[in-house]
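ligand=zinc ion
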Amino acid sequence: MQYFNNQALNSIIFDTFSLLNPVTKERYRNPALTKNCLHHKACFELEEALKEIQQQKLYQCPHCNQQAFSKYDLVQDWRVEAYKEFNEEVDEVIIIKGMMFNKCCRNKYKYLNFFTQPEYYKQFEQIFERVENDMQIVSLIRRDLQQQQIQNNNNKIIYLCFCLLDKVKINIPVRIRGCQHYECYELTSLLNFQIENRKKIQYLECKQPFCSNRLRIAHKNYSIQSVPISKELDEQQKILDIQTLFSGISVDLDLLNVIKKSNPSSFKFYYNKKTENIEEDINKIDGKAVDPFIVKFYLQHPDVQQKMQYQEFQKIIQQQTILATQGGLLQEEQDLSKQLTLQRYRNYQVNMIDKLTQLTIEYPVRCKLCRDLEVCMDIRSYIAQFIYFKKFFLAKGFSCPICNQQLGQQILRMNIQNYIYLDPNILSYMYQNMSNIIDTKIFEYHGEQYMLQDFKNRQKIKREDYVASLLDRIVVFRQLFCRVNFELRIRQPLILYNCPDRKIVDFKSFYQELKKINFDLEKQGLILCRCNYCYRNPIKFIAGQIYFHEAFYEALNKYYQIQDNNQNESHFTYTFADTERDSYIKTVQLILPLKINFQRENGSFWDMMSDEKYQSLFRGSEIQGYKFKLFAINFQTLCKSQSYQINKVYMLIWNKQCRISINVLIKNQNNMVLKCV
Ligand SMILES: [Zn+2]
Ligand SMILES: [Zn+2]
Ligand SMILES: [Zn+2]
Ligand SMILES: [Zn+2]
Ligand SMILES: [Zn+2]
């Protein structure tokens, strides 16, 4: 008997396979083939073959009629390996380029046909050849733990296996290179996103809150191109785009292995500090996985207990959960999708107690008819209710346990994945607040904060770009009050990019205006400035029109720090140095009480410690009402056109002919840096 060898599957490009014996509907004990069998879809039980060889000196494969005359003519089927790699609940797998993955229940045409196209499977194979160690979830977690060691962090590290893009359960986990968070993407979701968007946008902005990384999905910016191109050229460009996308992602093998090893309906993993590995977060009773939501529902219903074993009930619910979390309901329900987008930046509270089990909701779900987007249930108790009705009231209709509206007239014909969806907004932010939610059973959804963060991370004019565009690094900022609310001092500046005067509004009043139009920019449009242009062109999209002004924000912060007593000015002047630290607001001219004695011999030391005036600068002094303290002196010797940073109190004078100019950096009480030349 030969052992399974990995090359056996290499000829398979893309296909779905059952791991079960089609007769018994269970796994084989010892799946085997004859050494000449070439098929992968079917195999036979080793014991049966051995028995026949013993009795009749011959076994003929029931699938292809190849013959075996002794046990040496038999080989292990690939399922032997699959049984090791996958959870015992896995009945079906897909094989892509010889590698095994959990079966994907997604729309085949939209999400799976990629793998039958040469460029895709070539690239797919390559990302497995260049797995990057520091892009694996376990190394990311270990890195964070090392950095936090001092803080003695006892929190359990939880990871949820939802794709950041469309919240489906991940089967093939990939990261955008450079992302530092644990959350990542389902490969098929990224590929579908690319197909639908590559000619509209060049980059996918990472969807993780507070991450400003992005993935290039097109090798060039198509919106610039105007001439129509041939089909061939279009095909070539598509290939370049596919290569571009794959070069920006990295597969997470650690995560892939734990996904395969876990129940296909599990989303929740945690970092086990003892094994230093990531594991499925499940509750086990007598060695069997028991889901707290499903078991609670089961115990509440004696009629279910009479009809079904617990494990059977749980398995049905878990299978339906997989379908519901891989469904494309939101992609199809455009209206609902839009409502959820409008909901994204509202402030609201969510009651996190599950209606049926009274446990704290972990996977927030509701039906497509539910109007109130601030109410949800846990997906497991929702589906348990559905299955319960399906088993006991199969001729009746089914009503949503949240909104009580009837979803179908005959439950028998209903598939749950066509009616419910996980709330992408709540799911995005709830896990950062999980400890708070467990304590209070309330999730404070702070849409306003999330919007400001999105501006600061993604929708901004970067400091470096702004500074690079300046002819003169000294800028006079003349608009200090919000364009919408003239009383309001600007604190979080948003610039109206298309306004001829590039007027500024404060985030706070922008948010107020959004609230007034129910967040529906697209439909209502906002007029934020009364100039001719802005009045005629209400803002209907944020992208391309409103940006957070990072450089102005920096200047304002410094301005408010030192100008506390003097805020009646109509403008202020800010000098942008290369770094924020060295940039300063021009306010005072200092005459330094420091004169240097040039009368020194070549090569002799000048003892500044004994210079009383020099010492007094370090002790701090008050100039024009502000307190300053010297923290660095930069002496420049003009004759050598080189600059020396001197932090010592001794300074070497090497040539008495040198002219010395002095740069002094001065700090005030608030650590504000002023610079005087
Ligand atoms: Zn055969
Ligand atoms: Zn990211
Ligand atoms: Zn409902
Ligand atoms: Zn609040
Ligand atoms: Zn304007």
